[in-house]
Batch of 2 targets.
Target 1
Amino acid sequence: MSVVDKFLKYVSFDTQSDAHSSSSPSTKKQLALAEELKNELAEMGVDQAEVDPYGIVYAYLPANTEDDHYPAIGLIAHMDTASEMSGKDVRPRIVENYDGGPIRLNDQFTMNSEDFPSLTRCIGSDLIVTDGTTLLGGDDKAGIAIIMDAIERIQKSNKPHGRIFIAFTPDEEIGRGVENFDLDKFPADFAYTLDGGDIREVDYETFNAAMAHVEFKGKTIHPGDAKGRMINAAAAAVTFAGMLPQWQRPEFTEGYEGFLHLLEMEGECEHASLSYLIRDHDRQKFEQKKQILRSVQNYINELYPDCCKLEINDQYYNLKDYMYGDMTSVDLAKRALEENGIAPASKPVRGGTDGAMLTARGLITPNLGTGDGNCHGRYEFVSIKELTKMVDVVCRILEG
């Protein structure tokens, strides 16, 4: 099978994760793809392939040379798809030789480059698109297809390579992709996640990230007799949200600018709650944003004693900060791109990757593109040209 055939096969698996589940993996349906990948790896001659109790696929390909010039390299992609839209019964189609014009997905939805500028980089390429009723699953089954095709090619070519470690993880989309990742099974010198868009990009700067949950406890009194007695939790929540710096909302930020994003809210007089995403590339500014929330909490509790409870949990940290200046993996990836006629670039990721968490644990793991665009929704697409080219790039990386 070609890398395109592999991709079309993998998107037929419904692998949506579930943030409300406490199991690992969060959905059993992810295990179906995990078993398929394990079996395909075995058919390629990758004998050391397994699915662990948490649904992670691990595989190992020994070095075929005694030359210690070759580093031990890890390749990682995630199996789950996002919760924003269904990944069941995906019906992809191929748009040949995209000309830059609008792409009609169905009678209701059309995709065009004015609304989705990432399409402009794909003019002249064949595109895989959805039928407008589901997401495509390029995030991250494009990454899986690239890794699988590269491993198959490496096996057939018998070109010299060092040790290769492979992992396919569940639950990345709900922030739990590597919480059970066993680094003892993955002793690579460095690794790459293949979980991006534009294949020119080698990403190694991510946000620092935290989730804040704010609870408000009110006191319900008949409004006709409420003076000095009622505590309106919903009103306290509105006050809290209004006191935060409004210019630090995501719709006003870009590049290295962080944000405070109101993700969810609910409320009534007796009880209310707010959930925030806290993001910043700069660790000091990240901590300052958390302190802003604490200061507003203190103010609310001065108005209404014991009304406001704030819980902040860190999620991941800037990948770059834990590389400690070691650019070996980044330089190798950029060299591989250049040798395949692609001018590499790096820019700050306004999000995070599994690689951010792995890097903080000691395994430097930048992210590479896959040719996917507009992920998490009906307008998702994959450039066949970029998908195919990334197999060449990954093979070149594995050749050291």
Target 2
Amino acid sequence: MKSKGQLHLVPINCEVLEGWQTFPTFEKEQCWRCGSDTNKEIIQVTHGVSEPYYYCRSCLAVGSANTCQKYIWQPPLQRKGTDVNLLEWEGCLTPEQSVISNHLKEAVEKGCERYFIWAVTGAGKTEILYETIAFFLQNGGQVAFISPRRAACIDVSKRLKKVFSRTQQVTLHQTSEAVYKDEQLVIATAPQMWRFYCAFDLIIIDEVDAFPYVSSLQLQYGTKRALKKTGSSVLLSATPTKT
């Protein structure tokens, strides 16, 4: 069973079952998954093949996609909300943290598309997010917490498993053996967002100023595509760039 909200590669002539949508791997000489359109990243293969084809080198981290294939996709699960408080955290925010937490929650409830939190390392940015994450989870929403660094993902995953123990979650990175199976909470490195399309109601981007995310239009493109059209993104940074 293929997970919903996730892009799956199949041969271009593969029959598609009812309820699935299809997308080309390349459109107008641009990689549909990551947006690359340069000669340096779009490679043509002619040697040893009966028919030439193209593939994208930019998003190889999540598997090769070429013009002999197509994507199939189903909309993500529509989950029912719950009255149960899913947040199990015994700590408490400082008055200053509470102001930001409440403002963030109110903003996304009203449909805020992007929210930026700038605070020094150790200021409690992750804890400030707890109430907002809980709001989405309790209303049946899909949430992704992404970071440029694998170590940061593993650390955040341990923390979120403790405070959202009743929510199904998965941690995805290049050396992870985990496979996405419609979990409601996804913790991942930024390239993993190339696997998704219109899947998440909330995407949190940690260390938005860090390499390689800050300088990669492809990673930024993939993150935007993984967010639902009505979704919200929250950007976190201790040292933001001018941009």
